[in-house]
Structures
1.
Amino acid sequence: MTDPRVAGAGVTTFGSYPERTGRDLFAEAGLEALDQSGVPAADVEALYYGNFMGELAEHQGHQGPLMAEMVGVDAPATRYEAACASAGAAIRSAVQAIRSGEADVVMVGGAERMTNIGTAGATDALSIAADDLYEIRAGMTFPGAYALMARSYFEEYGGSREDLAHVAVKNHEHALVNDHAQLQKEISVADALEAPMVAEPLGLYDACPITDGAAAAIVTSEAYAAEHDLDAPVRISGTGQGGDNLALQDRAHYAQTPAADKAAREAYDDAGIGADAVDVAEVHDCFTIAEVLALESLALFERGEAITAARDGTTTRHGELPVNLSGGLKAKGHPVGATGVAQLATIAWVLDGSHPRADAVPDATVGVAHNAGGTVASTTVHVLEVGE
C-alpha cells in the first residue's frame, strides 16, 4: 500500500456569483486541476464529488455524473453529502480507492452555489444540517448553535470575545494575498468587537460569509505518478473520520468536538505521526470559536489553551504553528461542498512552496486539514506530507 499523491488542484475565486451555475463553477476548478496535474481526463477512473444543498439552491440532485460531464471525465461519479464535510468525505474515499488498488487516478472535488437564494434562503438551506425535529423547528440556526458552543467554552475554560476577535483578524490578514479568497480585507480587533452582534457572543466578523465556489484535485497512485513523470511531491499519508450525535442537546460536551477527536487520532495513527509533527494546519473555522475547538481536537493545543493562540501570535503566519494561511473559511469563504478540497489544495500548495503564504513555513513537511459538518457531527481529518 502506498500513499496517494496530489498531482494537481484547481480552486475558483470564492465569492458571490449568483449568475453562475454550480456546473460552471466546477468545470472551472476541475479543468484547472487536470491542467495543473498534466493528467488527461481519459485517465480519470472515478470522480468523488462533494455537494450539500444542490437540490435546494439549484433544484439539482444527481450531480456526480453531471459534474463528470462538465470536465470531460467518462467514469463513475458519486456525490458525497456530509454537510460542510462533504468534500472531506469525498477525499477519504479517494484515498481508500487508490490505496486498495481499485483506481490509479481519481478526481476529487466539490462545489456549492449559495448566493443566488439570498441570505435567508442560504441560512434556511444550511440549517438542514441540524436536527429538523428538535433544533430547526425550535428556530435553531448555526450562528445560534455555535454561540452556545462559545458560551459553554467560556464558562468551562475561560476566554472572551476579544480572544475570538484575534482569530478573525489573523485569518483576514492571511487572506490578503490569496487571490482565491472572498474577503481580502484587513480588519482590526476593534472592528470585530464593534461589528453588529449576530448571536451573543458571536458578531458579524466571527462568522464566515455565504459563498459560491468550487475546488478539485487530481489524486493518483505513486506508481502512476512515477510512470507518467508527474510533479507530485505531496502525499496524503493519513485519513480519519469521526461522528457524533446530530443535535447539540444530545452531546456530552458543547465545548469539545469528539467527532474531530476521533478523526484526528485515526488520521495521525494512519500516518504514523503525532500531533507534534504538524507544521501547518487548515481547520474548519465556520465561526471563530470553531477554529479554537478544532485546534484542541487536533491535539495541537491542550483543552482550554487554543483560545489565546491567535492573540499570542502562535497561529499567525509569524508564529510557531500557522493556522489557516488561506484565510480559512472566515476570510477565504465557505462554499460548503467545496471547502474540504480547497483545504487540501491549500496544504498541498503550502508544502510544495507554491502558495503565496508558503514563505511562512518554508521548511514545513507535514500539514493537516480538518473539515467539519454541522456542529461537528461529522469530521474528516487528512494528513499531508512532502518528502520521503
2.
Amino acid sequence: MRDGLQVYCRECASAYHQERQLAKGCNVRPRVDVPEGHKYCRTCGEIKPYSEWTKNRSASDGLATLCRTCKASKGRAHHLKREYGITEAERDELIASQGGVCCICLAALPVHVDHCHETGRVRGVLCFSCNAALGQFKDRPDVMRRAATYVEGNAWKPTLVAPGVYQLPS
C-alpha cells in the first residue's frame, strides 16, 4: 500500500504465499514451530538452542544455516574431497582394508589420510604419530632407512679400515 504496510498480517501473507507456491507445484518447506532461543536445523532435523549454532552476521537472525555438528561433518567431507579426491565412504573402506589399524605401527586408530606430495596419490590412513613422522622425514625413503638402522642399534659411524681411511656404513 501507499503507507508501506501490507493488507494482511505477516502470518496470513506467509500462509497465502505458501498456498500459491503449492498450487504452482513448487517445493515448499513445512513450517516448524520453534521455542524462543532455539533454531531448527534442516540438515539433521533437530531443534537446538542458539548455543549450538555458529554466528553469521549476514543472516537475518545472526546465526548460520547449519548447526555446529552438521557444519563440522560437512566440513570434514569437503576437506577429504578437496584435498585427497576421496569420499568418507572411500576413506572408511581404506581403514577396513587395513584391518582398522595404522599401516605403519599396526596398533593405533588410523585417522589421518596419507598421500604422496608429488603425485597426490592416497597411500593409506595412518595414526597421528606415524603421519607426523613421515612428514618430518619429508617422505624420503633413504632418510627413513637410515633412521631404522639407527634405531636398530647400528650407529651411523665410520669404521677405521686403515690409518686415515674410513668406511661409511651402507
3.
Amino acid sequence: MRAIDAGLLICHECHQLNRHEPELKRQYCSRCGGQVHARRPNSLVRTWALLLTAAILYIPANMLPIMTVNALGQGQSDTIMSGVVTLVGHGMLPIAAVVFIASIVVPTFKLVGIALLLYSVQRHQPMSARQRVLMYRFIEWIGRWSMLDIFVIAILVAVVKFGSLASIEPGMGAAAFASVVILTMLAALTFDPRLIWDNTDDDHE
C-alpha cells in the first residue's frame, strides 16, 4: 500500500509524515512548515528539461579541450578521450581506467538510466518497481563520482604553477562537463521517486 492510499503525505524538507487533508488547497508540514504535495508538481517535465540540457552539453564536454598543459612554452590541449589515450600510451592503465569510467562511463550511464526511468514511468513499461528503485538509488549514489575529473583538474591547476616552465589551465570542456554532472544530479533530485509506485499494479514483480 502506498502512503497516499493511507492518507499520508511526506515532507521533503524534514521527512515528517502528515495526514492528508484533501479539502485544503495547500498543505504545510506540521513540523517544519514546508509545503507538502502528494507528488512533486511538474516533476517529470523538470527532470526531462534538465536531462535534455545535460545531454546537449555532453557533446561539447567531450569535443572541447578539458585542460591545456603548458610546458617550456609549448601547450598541449586534451579532451577527455584524448587524455585517456595519452595515459594509456604512457603505460598508466589504472589511472586511464579510472578517468574513463568516471568521465565517460558514469555520465553516459546516468543520462541513459534517468531517461529509461522517466520513459518507463511515463509509458508504464513492464519494468518492476524494484528494478526502478534500484536504478534510481544507483544513479543517486554514482553521481558524486562524476566530479572526479573536475577535482583532479582543480588540484592540478592550483599545484602546477611554475611560471613559464609549466602550468595547467582548464578548458571549456571542463566547464561543459561540470555542467553535465550538476544537471544530471539535479535531474535525479527533481525526479519524484514516489511516481515509481503509481503504476505498480501494471508491473511484473
